[in-house]
Design a protein that fits this description.
270 residues, alpha/beta, 56% helix, binds adenosine-5'-triphosphate, binds magnesium ion
Length: 270
């Protein structure tokens, strides 16, 4: 359905390929319809950031991986978009850090849970928490169906990685004492602001980076990991992310005026 050919030299090729992964995931029941819209919001922020991993995103990713490695009981939460975009990397990060994967869906449907579970198993996962055949407990602060968590997963976790998360749930996780790490392209979202560590980057770039970092950092001592985490301030991290967007926009404002761009535009008009 969504396997269209994108020319090699298409300027928006990477973005279109990511989009088609999401569309394919939607066709397979993995991505909720609202997930398509959430992806569009992410795409817009990625455009504003320049579609690259910034210095501060890399620093936040290092702090995140060190925090997961230092945790007693870290857990990685997976939703439909995450599963459609980076299933193998999620499984690999889980394996390298010992943090189990837990499925958590805003728009729960049994067939969605099944599709995500199957995709994660195909990607090499051995254990998946949060499924309906497992015991569940609730986050008292939340009223939606996302209250449900696995008692052996998020229920007893000290550190939770919740990429592409909703603000209400992030806030609720903080209120019950979890240390929250997120990946979110919007540095102004409530999730980015509530989290302890926000990696402002596209998950398709952040996850491979985190896997690479986990591979390198696994052998570090606790003391070395603690020194990586020390001094990280998420408020400043988010301020820098917003400033990076502003800087990129300034550069774009100059680029739009360049004669080369104008020539191209004239050709199109002709
Ligand atoms: P919040 O509830 O935190 O205020 P929101 O309501 O604006 O955020 P949601 O739909 O709840 O947005 O969450 C989706 C978030 O995921 C958005 O902030 C969006 O920018 C982000 N997002 C979407 N796709 C990606 C992606 N591929 N990588 C990183 N972030 C993404
Ligand atoms: Mg939201």
């Amino acid at each position: 359905m969504s396997d269209i050919e994108i020319p090699e030299d298409h300027p928006r090729r990477v973005s279109l390929e990511i989009r088609h992964k999401i569309i394919r995931g939607h066709g397979l029941n993995i991505v909720a319809t609202a997930g398509l819209l959430a992806h569009g919001r992410g795409e817009a922020f990625d455009y504003l950031l320049g579609e690259r991993t910034t210095e501060i995103a890399r620093r936040a990713a290092e702090v995140a991986v060190a925090t997961i490695l230092l945790a007693e009981h870290p857990v990685i939460s997976v939703n439909g978009n995450v599963c459609a975009l980076v299933p193998e990397e999620m499984v690999e990060l889980s394996r390298l850090t010992g943090a189990p994967l837990e499925i958590n869906l805003f728009y729960y449907r049994p067939e969605r849970e099944r599709a995500i579970r199957e995709a994660l198993l195909r990607a090499g996962a051995s254990e998946i928490l949060g499924t309906s055949d497992r015991p569940s407990t609730t986050i008292p602060e939340l009223s939606s169906n996302r209250r449900k968590v696995d008692p052996e997963g998020i229920g007893s976790a000290d550190v939770v990685l919740v990429p592409l998360e909703d603000g209400d749930r992030t806030e609720a996780l903080r209120r019950i004492g979890k240390q929250v790490i997120t990946i979110d392209l919007n540095p102004m979202s409530r999730t980015a602001r509530y989290a302890n560590i926000s990696i402002v980057d596209n998950i398709v770039r952040a996850l491979p980076l985190m896997v690479e970092l986990a591979r390198d950092m696994r052998s570090l001592s606790r003391q070395e990991l603690e020194s990586i985490v020390a001094g990280f301030d998420n408020g400043r991290n988010l301020q820098t992310a917003v400033r990076t967007i502003l800087q990129h926009l300034k550069e774009q404002a100059e680029a739009v005026r360049s004669p080369l761009e104008l020539e191209v535009l004239e050709e199109v008009v002709d």
